[in-house]
Amino acid sequence: MDRFGGRTPIKIDVHVIATTKSGLASAAQTGEFRQDLYYRLNVIPLRLPPLRERRRDIPLLAAYFVDKYAGRYAKGG
Prior knowledge:
With 77 residues, this protein is mainly α.
């Protein structure tokens, strides 16, 4: 990758996870969001439904976090 204003390439390894509740595709088309940034971020789009649409996951997530933090803080879980 070439740095902006740089003269020599530098190696980078970047992973970006971004989320929004607005439609970036339409915002990029209307100019409300930069098109170049949208296309760089939209390499592998993932759609994860909100937790309110996955109510069956709540007990599993609660148990996971109780176990995780009970072990971390030496509490019974």
